[in-house]
């Protein structure tokens, strides 16, 4: 497994964390393959996937450090511990659970808890979060909200998630996001149902291109 700093460096360098929330395990595995074909090297498997731990284990064994597999929708330390044992190299949660953060730090695994208000964000950071998931970002102002947060909290790395799409991906990065988490706008469920995984591969390429262009610009642009 890659060390914690290596995982963080890849997250911040690539800037895209695909969120796989597909119920059927084989479809989740096929989606992961399509994402890899699109150039993705980080994939979050949510715990809502049927047999999520087995999916994480299989993908981790299949791709090793070529694609870093993490666990998403991790609500408590018990689930987090099981995900780490399955090979998850990072844990993502929609909420703030100090016990989960403590577990991840003890295991030397990247942890990205969810928060929304400045108070929650600072609490997560002080508890030992490596990055903080800002969720749901689209519903509270999108890039404008991230830009507003970065002013007083420049030292905290944000991963906005929830309503992220190709239109706001670049602006979110330019507003100060270290990376973005993308689910439905990247992993088209209709395409999955049709077995048309090429759509997901092309979506991944488009998101990576948008992020790369945004990261190539200096300074923090307005939204």
Structure in words:
The protein has 223 residues and is α/β, with parallel strands linked by helices. The chain has a single domain (4-215), classed as TIM Barrel (Alpha-Beta Barrel), CATH 3.20.20.70. The chain is built from ten helices and nine strands. The protein has helices at residues 4-14, 25-37, 52-63, 77-85, 98-107, 118-127, 143-150, 166-174, 189-193, 198-215; strands spanning 16-20, 42-46, 68-72, 90-92, 110-112, 114-115, 132-134, 158-160, 180-182. The strands form three sheets. The chain has a four-stranded parallel β-sheet, sandwiched between helices. It has a three-stranded parallel β-sheet with strand order 6-7-8, covered by helices on one side. Strand 2 (42-46), helix 3 and strand 3 (68-72) form a beta-alpha-beta unit. Helix 2 crosses helix 10 (198-215), helix 4 packs parallel to helix 5 and helix 8 (166-174) runs parallel beside helix 10 (198-215). The relative contact order is 0.16. Residues 218-223 have low confidence and may be disordered.
For this structure, what is the CATH class? Alpha Beta
Biggest sheet record? 4 strands, parallel
- What is the fold named in CATH at topology level? TIM Barrel
Number of domains: 1
Question: Which descriptors apply to this entry?
Answer:
single chain, 223 residues, 14% strand, TIM Barrel, alpha/beta, three-stranded parallel beta sheet, four-stranded parallel beta sheet, 47% helix
Which helices and strands, and how do they pair?
Elements: H1 4-14, E1 16-20, H2 25-37, E2 42-46, H3 52-63, E3 68-72, H4 77-85, E4 90-92, H5 98-107, E5 110-112, E6 114-115, H6 118-127, E7 132-134, H7 143-150, E8 158-160, H8 166-174, E9 180-182, H9 189-193, H10 198-215
Parallel strand pairs: 1-2, 1-9, 2-3, 4-5, 6-7, 7-8
Helix pairs in contact: 2-3, 2-10, 4-5, 7-8, 8-10
């Amino acid at each position: 497994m890659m060390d914690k700093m290596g995982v963080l460096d890849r997250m911040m360098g690539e800037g895209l964390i695909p969120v796989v929330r597909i119920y059927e395990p084989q479809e989740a595995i096929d989606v992961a393959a399509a994402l890899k074909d699109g150039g993705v090297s980080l994939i979050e498997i949510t715990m809502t996937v049927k047999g999520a731990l087995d999916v994480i284990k299989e993908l981790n064994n299949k791709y090793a450090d070529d694609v870093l597999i993490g666990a998403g929708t991790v609500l408590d330390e018990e689930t987090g511990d099981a995900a780490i044992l399955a090979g998850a190299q990072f844990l993502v949660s929609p909420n703030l659970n100090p016990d989960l953060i403590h577990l991840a730090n003890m295991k030397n695994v990247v942890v990205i808890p969810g928060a929304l208000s400045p108070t929650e964000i600072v609490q997560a950071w002080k508890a030992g979060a490596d990055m903080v998931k800002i969720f749901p970002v689209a519903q509270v102002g999108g890039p404008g909200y991230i830009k507003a947060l970065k002013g007083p909290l420049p030292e905290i790395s944000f991963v906005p998630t929830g309503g992220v799409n190709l239109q706001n991906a670049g602006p979110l990065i330019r507003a100060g996001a270290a990376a973005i988490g993308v689910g439905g706008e990247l992993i088209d469920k209709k395409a999955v149902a049709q077995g048309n995984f090429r759509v997901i591969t092309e979506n991944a390429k488009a998101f990576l291109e948008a992020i790369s262009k945004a990261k190539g610009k200096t300074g923090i642009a307005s939204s």
